[in-house]
Specification:
Length: 334
């Protein structure tokens, strides 16, 4: 029996950037509706078993109302902490239980921690966060169909997923954390709010993906050079008071001019030094790692990032295989 995991972050889409920028608010009622549509998409592909992360709002339990007869739903058993440790633990358990796919509801930060625990399990990320570069803005029903196609093997992992790169934070030659979009060096050591937005405190930006149509810090690099998440290269930017002026959307509703003193491409397994200490490194938009004065620290691009379901490619392969032309998709033959 194919197992699909669901990690719905009840805290995503609600941080301080609603006050300092113009970010959307994704309330948990909307997340319930999204998950319900995901479940109905999964049902159409023949998925009958899901396992999910427990949360204080009961997002998946409430989404199951009205469709519970169609599914066996397992609430993952662990001591929930109501923080990012829950997403890591849930992903680890789903990997251990042999999940074929993990559907996430959150932003870049949520998917960063899921990627830490997911191992080789493909992630299908749905956007309900602030800076949504890693996840998709896509209808939940279609996401459920795509996850179900991967989960049942009607579309293989090779056909419907790609492996993203990732950024590794290294302190004194030890990997201490990762990012799936950007790592940003700030001299603002105050960590009362984990979100980061003050450009005058930023000194370096490391990216494993960039595009001019992105939002957030990866849009800055995107105005100079586009990098896809499955490409074996990244980018590092040095910010300052002089240099090339780039205008970019650094947050929803916030367009800033940024001065780039230097830009270099990153190659896999190459350490790029963090040149300012003490500092805080924000990973995918949130302060995570404090580097003390005098510590040796670097960012490294790794090709060993998370597997990600390519929804558009998965649905295209299903069309080519005529899976949706077989009357009932649950009876389609690979």
């Amino acid at each position: 029996m194919s197992l699909i995991g669901i990690v719905a972050n009840p805290a995503s889409g609600k941080d301080i950037r609603r006050l300092v920028a113009y970010s959307s608010v994704f309330d948990n009622q909307e997340k319930i509706r999204i998950v319900r549509r995901v479940l109905l998409g999964l049902k159409a592909t023949g998925i009958e078993h899901v396992a999910f992360m427990p949360d204080y709002h009961g997002i998946v339990e409430k989404a199951m109302e009205g469709v519970e007869e169609e599914f066996t739903a397992e609430r993952l058993q662990f001591n929930a902490k109501a923080d990012q440790r829950d997403s890591i633990k849930a992903a680890q358990l789903l990997s251990e239980q042999g999940a074929s796919c993990i559907i996430t509801l959150g932003g870049d930060g949520t998917n960063r921690v899921v990627a830490i625990g997911a191992n080789q399990v493909p992630i299908l990320p749905l956007s309900t966060g602030t800076n949504n570069v890693f996840p998709y803005m896509i209808e939940g029903t279609v996401a459920g169909l795509a996850a179900g196609l991967i989960g049942t093997g009607k579309v293989s992992k090779k056909e419907g997923t790609f492996q993203s790169t990732r950024l590794e934070v290294i302190i004194e030659n030890k990997v201490v954390d990762i990012a799936v979009v950007d790592a940003v060096v700030s001299t603002d050591l105050f960590v009362g709010s984990r979100a980061i937005w003050e450009m005058d405190k930023l000194k370096q930006i490391f990216l494993n993906r960039s595009h001019p149509a992105n939002i957030g810090f990866s849009s800055i690099g995107g105005m100079l050079n586009a990098v896809s998440p499955d490409e074996p290269r990244g980018m590092t930017l040095k910010l300052g008071k002089k240099g090339r002026c780039v205008t970019a959307p650094i947050a929803p509703g916030i367009v800033e001019q940024v001065l780039i003193e230097d830009m270099n491409l990153m190659r896999p397994d190459e350490n790029m030094d963090i040149t300012v200490t003490p500092c805080v490194v924000a990973l995918d938009g949130e302060r995570e790692v404090e580097i003390k004065k005098g510590q040796k620290a670097a960012i490294r691009l790794s090709t060993n990032g998370p597997f990600v379901v390519d929804v558009y490619q998965t649905m295209a392969v299903a069309m080519e295989k005529k899976i949706f032309q077989a009357g009932s998709i649950t009876n389609a033959i690979d």
